[in-house]
Amino acid sequence: MLQKTKNRILDLKKNCWIGTGGIASNTFFPEDEKDLHNYLKIKNNKKFFILGNGSNILFRDKGYSGKIIKLGKGFRGINFTQDKKHLICGAATLKKELSNFALKNNISGFEFLSCIPGNLAGGVKMNAGCFDNSFSDIVSKVVGYKFNGIKKTISANKIKFRYRRTNIPNDFVITNIIFKIKKSNYNVIKKKMDLYVKKKSISQPEKIKTSGSTFRNPSDKVKAWTLIKGAGCDKLNFEGAKFSGKHSNFLDNSSSASSKNIEKLISLTIEKVKNKYDVKLNLEIQVVGDK
Q: Pick the catalytic residue: 33, 97, 114, 164?
C-alpha cells in the first residue's frame, strides 16, 4: 500500500482555493490510519507539511520541495461514540458536512461551520471561527500521530485555544476529532444556520479565488479590513493581485496573479498599515513553498 500511495506529483494550484503555486513531487496520500501509521514509522522524525483542503493557503510559484502528506477518503466520516455522548469525526471531513450532520441530528453549536470552508483538522489547528463562535467551543479531544509514528490523544483542556491559533504541535497529524454534543430543536438550529449563511453572503465575497481572511484582526474592536481600507490598500493591484471590493481583508485572485505578486501586496499592506496606524498586521493564511 505504501508503494502505491507515495510520490505522486501534486499541482499545488489545484490544491489551494486561491489557485497559486508550482509543483510538489515529494508527496504521500495515506488511504487510512494504518497506512499513515506505517509510513510515519518508516520515515521516523522527518518533517512534513500536512495539507488539508487548501482553503487558507498561499502556495509559492516555485512549488514545494518538502514532503507533503494529504489525508484521503479514509479519513472522512462522522459517527456517534459508543455512549452517544460525543461525535467522532475524521480529520478530512469538511466543516459543512459536520454542520449538516448536526442539523439532521438536532445537535446545536455547529451552525457556524456551515460558513467556513475546509476540513475539520485545519479548523481545529487554527481554532477557526466566525460570528462569535469557534472550534474551542465544541472540541473535546483531538487524536492523531506524532511524526515519529506514536499515537496520541490531546484533551481540549490541554489545548491552548487562542484567536485563530492553538498550541497543537506542527509535528502532529490529526486523524480524528471528538466533539461535544448539545441537543436542541431542529428549527432553532436551522434558523441560526440560515442567519449565519445570510450574514456571510452579505459581507463576504463568493465565487472568487480567495484564501479567506488574509490577516487576523488585531483585537475584538479593531478589524483588519478597516485598517486595510483606511490605509488605501484596498485599491492596490499588482498585476491582478488585489483585495476583494466586497471585503478588503479577502484576497481576490480571479485574475490568476502569481504568488510573488500576492506576497508583494501583502508586504506593502503590512507596511502601509504600520506606517499609518502603528499596528502590525499578522497573517491568518499560511504562505508555503520554496522562495
A: 164
Active site (annotated) includes residue 164: yes
203 included as an active-site residue: no
CATH number 3.30.43.10 given to 2-70 = yes
60 is catalytic: no
Specify which residues 145 forms β-bridges with: 151, 173
Instruction: Parse the chain into domains and list their residue ranges.
Output: 2-70, 76-202, 224-288
- Stated pTM of the model: 0.92
For residue 238, what are the CA distances in angstroms to 241, 248, 249, 286, 289? Answer: 5, 15, 16, 20, 20
pLDDT digits (tens, 9 = 90+) for 144-200: 999 999 999 999 999 999 999 999 999 999 999 999 999 999 999 999 999 999 999
- Rounded-to-5 percentages of helix, strand, coil across the chain: 35, 25, 45
